[in-house]
């Protein structure tokens, strides 16, 4: 699966233990074995993608004594910064300016590369000084060569691009500011109402058509939104009975739905307010108020453009998606995309709120003040093909024995031996019990046998301690490598393969399944049942392994303090257990 | 909804069609009537002193669809992010293959037993096919991306305004709320129906919202911000995309022209890409037009375009880099309009051959209008808001509106399909209008509506109505204070553009208007997680007030809980 074989994923089971909010120490109550058998972890289940992580991605809560995945932590933003100019943005600016860099950082709307500010004038080769070069300036993409020239935008200065860009529409026309827009809207509305007054007085009963009051040109999404917003604000303001003497009251003899609801639900509405009958909130009546009547001309124009100019002027879905306003279709509508800010975040255990990781606040630093990694608490499982190791250990010059094992071509039906290594990061020796289903779940059934599912792994003590320790002596084994590079003997059920200071190796025998169902006799070729296509990665051989650890650890200082402080004997130990599922990606089964 | 008292919480999908002509008073008592009143209270900036609204509350605005979730902040015109649920979003952590150019250039295969595009869905309405845990996984991951990558918030918890389809199954809703409360610490979530918000974002109080989404098209009659009727059809994005794939497979096979080559099966992405870039919809064929009635704004460009037989036939070239070998396909431009034709309008099938849930769009809209009370219909037909992912297909809105217009011209509003002559129909319309006007005048006097039903408190909808009627009388007095006449436009087919449900939700949250369906975190965690067996009885929303008849199960029991439309 995109990771090189063989790989190991670790499962955090927070997804199906909704009880995460209730503090439990799972270690004290291991689930009964039958229960586990029933719930064999299925790496083929789409849900598994959400609970499996490489060990490096997992944290560990020492208080809860549990793995913590991105899903069972709470994240807290510590600071904001632009990944492009590394400027740290204060939180007040996040509120006012949004989540993008407001300096000169832009990404190409076509290919997302970071853009550069360049002069349209040919650069003077004699000087490196930018200020010496004259404008006009453009944002351009060094990768695909798209530039703001393509949308008719040039800048006067090479700094403050964001401010300049916000004032220029594609094609070079200025964009009015919000203030100017509001002013213009008020002016137009004033004009409109005067006109209407005249119409009503002159008894012209015909309602003015919408078309007549349409402003020229279609408004942008943004403009329509601000018109709508202004309209609703004014309606709510005039419909609120805060001005009981407003002329609205005399106009209508019945309450609107709005004021009805107001009266019903506002506990503070007085009698007087109830009597007041405000103007009902009406609907928007013009584009100035955000109303846009469908115009078939726009549809026709779009169709004509596609017909005339073809595929190349249309935008891909990714390009549209990257735009701030994704409601666009053609390449002349593109805008450079300001770089999205990033954050540094601390992580806490969702259950007990203890800090699990906290990065250094300096933007350029990639170090952590605190980082409780699971790999310091959970044994690492790694798999290797047995034939490879042995072949490499005993290089036989001149033979054609395969030196490298091809994990991308596992052979169906051939028993193959692998070595599973467990290395222990803990300072205490652990007793390990492994469990695995005898056949892999899913369409392609491979057989798995762990030859020695129960064993011990030494403590992660100093090498010096290791030398003094005599309890774990290396295993003697007399294996013979046959001419085909396969092991002839020495593999015994119930015996470990090898052992070191804080690691132990056991043998797993795997019989990769068949990609196609084996039919007894293949008469008439592929007649009969049509062959089913394999899904993506269905030929990948993954084995779920349930790992249970038992060990004795020092009672943590805190707990000891709580129990009894008098008995401060050094060797106060407690029995602990951990259990979790892992998934090992062995390789890809070769098509025959 | 009264129909759901004590019953199971299944949302009735097929709403009954009433045989008799509906009248306004039905509106107040029919199960689908008063839904979620939009406005309950206003901000303290505008509202009465001591209003309960907490100004310091900050909101996040979310819109949920079957293939995306949009998120952002109130008062902004576009969401900060639109997140999808494709295979690339479902990979394991540490699986970086989507950045491998070799991988991305390969054509993707559909999984066995999966429907077209199923791998790209967050959920589907058929719960029997749905792994609710997987929905939770997908939604949680998407929301985590939204919060961490796009929202970039300080740790302060934010309330959530959630726009979602009105017929969201309860189990699904519970899953979504569970994630938002549990993993994202929202203190409260306000639920609002997408069609209502679409009409808000169109500047309308009443509308016929046609949401052409992924799995289905829903047509919702909105009257005074309440949903009064809804119908749906499977003629929507999924069918359209399937048709496009069919067309492209066929064209590619012809283009490659090798009998030994395996049949082309383009991927979902390829079909979607072609559809969104160069797909289009033809205007209504002229030969079918019986009654020529077109609003003046139909552009001459369009007319000219339909009539001209172009020669040489315009063609378009589409690159297929994922084909083996990569190729460029040149096909007639006109053929790219065929999928929309087949999937959405099905012109070659007789109307009686369609199941109820597969009506062509114009018939679906027409029937929805037909089942609306006359007054509501008059308003709604002039406020047709077409939205949803597919609605941006060039030419589609125009086509729907002209098909609908033709249908109305041809059939009028008899519930029984009639082929009456044009003059008869014309007379009838005039008669109806006159009666209607007179009735409204009567009601317009002081004792509004009491004659209709003394027991039933008036729905807001009823009361609003008569203002339109007396407007003429008051026009002279009102001068500039009365609503502009365009606000009462009715009786003709007219399309109105919307900025979409998300923008509507953003406006509502910006104006600090509170919806009636608000779920509190503590209550949800307490009852929502108490166990599935209790879930049936426990409704998680406090219904603070009852709003006249028929709203929620809590009518008359103040302080009880309701999920409003979603109950
Ligand atoms: Zn977890
Ligand atoms: Zn920057
Ligand atoms: Zn570029
Ligand atoms: Zn913890």
TrEMBL record, chain A:
InterPro entries (alphabetical): DCTN4
Location(s) in or outside the cell: Cytoplasm, Cytoskeleton, Microtubule organizing center, Centrosome; Cytoplasm, Cytoskeleton, Stress fiber; Cytoplasm, Myofibril
One Pfam family this sequence matches: Dynactin_p62
Keywords, ordered alphabetically: Acetylation, Coiled coil, Cytoplasm, Cytoskeleton, Isopeptide bond, Phosphoprotein, Ubl conjugation
Domain of life of the organism encoding this protein: Eukaryota
Residue ranges with Basic and acidic residues bias: 178-201
This protein's GO CC annotations: dynactin complex; stress fiber
Start and end residues of each stretch annotated as Disordered: 21-47, 168-214
PANTHER family assigned to the protein according to its UniProt record, in alphabetical order: DYNACTIN P62 SUBUNIT, DYNACTIN SUBUNIT 4
Subunit structure as annotated in this protein's UniProt entry: Subunit of dynactin, a multiprotein complex part of a tripartite complex with dynein and a adapter, such as BICDL1, BICD2 or HOOK3. The dynactin complex is built around ACTR1A/ACTB filament and consists of an actin-related filament composed of a shoulder domain, a pointed end and a barbed end. Its length is defined by its flexible shoulder domain. The soulder is composed of 2 DCTN1 subunits, 4 DCTN2 and 2 DCTN3. The 4 DCNT2 (via N-terminus) bind the ACTR1A filament and act as molecular rulers to determine the length. The pointed end is important for binding dynein-dynactin cargo adapters.
Family: Belongs to the dynactin subunit 4 family.
Name by which UniProt lists this protein: Dynactin subunit 4
Automatic annotation (TrEMBL), chain B:
Basic and acidic residues biased stretches: 435-449
InterPro entries found in the cross-reference section: Actin, ATPase_NBD
Region listing for Disordered, in residue ranges: 1-50, 435-454, 536-555
A Pfam family per the record: Actin
Similarity section: Belongs to the actin family.
Name of the protein in question: Actin-like ATPase domain-containing protein
UniProt source species: Zopfia rhizophila CBS 207.26
